[in-house]
From TrEMBL:
It comes from Rikenella microfusus. This is Lipoprotein.
Length: 239
């Protein structure tokens, strides 16, 4: 589980910030956050690091139990980062609200993905099949799944503090990457986070079976978005 979590967290953080080894001049920026997003849709898919299902197979079959659920605004990653962005006037208002007006770094050092600006109320994950005796179909799986996400709430609180927490240092994560139980995420209720989550189970289902996972996200203003994965055949602890 630790290796799987580290791999997924690494994928989550790839491309968020990095060094450019070419001699390129980047303009200075007063803002660390370059884009704010108000997502209007949600997409979800299940993937396995070990298996590539045959083309046309329904459902996809995961044989090793190592699977993750990805969510983002649209099926296209490019669209997920370029649609539903706020206009320039709203951007300036939000920058003032969050105190992001004196970053002073170059744009290569800025946040490269859009973030939401309304506090998240909750995220929930359920399956349409029994996961185990304590988690029948339709019940919350928040205590059985880890959510991995990017958030810059802490960075702007100080502001511009890029020192990882002790937990992030333990996992080798930068200050903007988090991994915790979904139930713990709902206690944190972050605000400035990318609408792009990775869910990974801490345990396999009790029995083999077909699962469709539904992810539901809500913010404090009452907006609710939901998405369901395609069916996936999971191998359980008891075959």
């Amino acid at each position: 589980m630790k290796l799987q979590l580290l791999m997924c967290a690494g994928l989550l953080c790839m491309g968020l910030s990095g060094c450019n080894k070419e001699v390129t001049r980047f303009p200075k920026s007063d803002h660390y956050i370059l884009r704010y997003q108000n997502p209007s849709s949600m997409y979800a898919e299940t993937k396995s690091a070990a298996d590539t299902p045959p083309i046309g197979s329904t459902p996809a079959k995961v044989t090793d139990g190592h699977f993750v659920v990805y969510t983002r605004p649209y099926s296209s990653p490019a669209l997920s980062e370029s649609k539903d962005l706020v206009d320039d006037a709203t951007f300036e208002t939000l920058a003032e609200r969050f105190g992001d007006t004196h970053f002073g770094g170059t744009t290569i050092d800025c946040l490269s993905v859009p973030v939401m600006y309304v506090q998240t109320e909750s995220v929930n994950i359920v399956s349409d099949n029994d996961y185990d005796a304590d988690h029948p179909a339709g019940s919350s799986l928040n205590d059985l799944f880890v959510i991995q996400y990017k958030c810059v709430d802490n960075i702007l609180k100080k502001p511009y503090d890029f020192e990882p927490t002790d937990e992030q240092q333990k996992w080798g994560l930068p200050a903007w990457c988090f991994a915790e139980k979904v139930s713990d995420f709902n206690l944190r209720r972050p605000t400035l986070l990318q609408f792009n989550f990775i869910f990974s189970p801490v345990t396999d289902p009790e029995r083999s079976g077909i699962h469709r996972f539904t992810i539901t996200w809500a913010n404090i203003e009452g907006k609710v978005l939901s998405a369901t994965t395609q069916p996936v055949q999971l191998v359980g602890k008891s075959l």
